[in-house]
Backbone:
């Protein structure tokens, strides 16, 4: 069953602007992961944040996790056309499986 | 190059036919997964395998079957019992590390039932 839900469903921004998307989940987790999917392709792992971490950075990506609110956010700074993709959060409950949300589709306009 | 390959990229099937999707990995990962993705939706887990000769049903296993005879291979058969098989199918693998189950994905197979 899908545990994560992303918000918004779609986002359109100008190149150079920041993009923020949110993920909410229902049960306790071991970690939360974000993936990117370009149209018609497989998913690529972006970043993983453990349940005892509050914030993590990787290049232009910043992820936060609030376990009390069961929510996470992904911020992409200084967006580029190449960031156009769908972004999915996935929760890991420590049972070898991930539960994916429906994704946020990001369009970066030149 | 290490990675996951899926074949074919596009597959067309007539109603009532079984079809098998291939997934191979040379990452030496123990765990492998099959997901289904419908337009505008997230991934739903069909089957997963943590070790050779063992596999478990995911959330939507009805109408699908798998085998795991080799560590590198995890083929998925879409049977005629699957009522709505047209979808994008993704295979993934993972190794349980200290930081959790991070998955690596293949490029996907798009199945269309005619």
Residues:
């Amino acid at each position: 069953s899908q545990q994560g839900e992303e918000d918004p469903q779609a986002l359109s921004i100008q190149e150079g602007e920041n993009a923020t998307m949110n993920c909410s989940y229902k049960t306790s987790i071991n970690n939360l992961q974000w993936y990117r999917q370009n149209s018609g392709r497989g998913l690529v792992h972006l970043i993983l944040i453990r349940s005892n971490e509050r914030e993590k950075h990787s290049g232009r990506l910043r992820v936060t996790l609030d376990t009390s609110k069961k929510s996470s956010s992904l911020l992409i700074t200084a967006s580029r056309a190449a960031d156009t993709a769908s972004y999915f959060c996935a929760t890991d409950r420590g049972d070898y499986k991930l539960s994916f949300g429906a994704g946020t589709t990001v369009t970066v306009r030149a | 190059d290490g990675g996951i390959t899926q074949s074919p990229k596009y597959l067309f099937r007539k109603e009532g036919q079984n079809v098998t999707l291939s997934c191979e990995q040379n990452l030496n990962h123990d765990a492998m997964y099959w997901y289904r993705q419908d337009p505008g939706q997230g991934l739903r887990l069909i089957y997963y395998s943590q070790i050779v000769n063992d596999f478990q049903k995911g959330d939507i296993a009805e109408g699908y079957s798998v085998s795991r005879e080799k560590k590198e291979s995890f083929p998925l058969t879409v049977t005629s019992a699957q009522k709505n098989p047209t979808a994008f199918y993704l295979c993934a693998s993972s190794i349980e590390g200290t930081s959790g189950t991070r998955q690596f994905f293949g490029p996907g197979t798009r199945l269309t039932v005619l």
Remarks:
- Residues 92 and 98 of chain A are 5 Å apart (CA to CA).
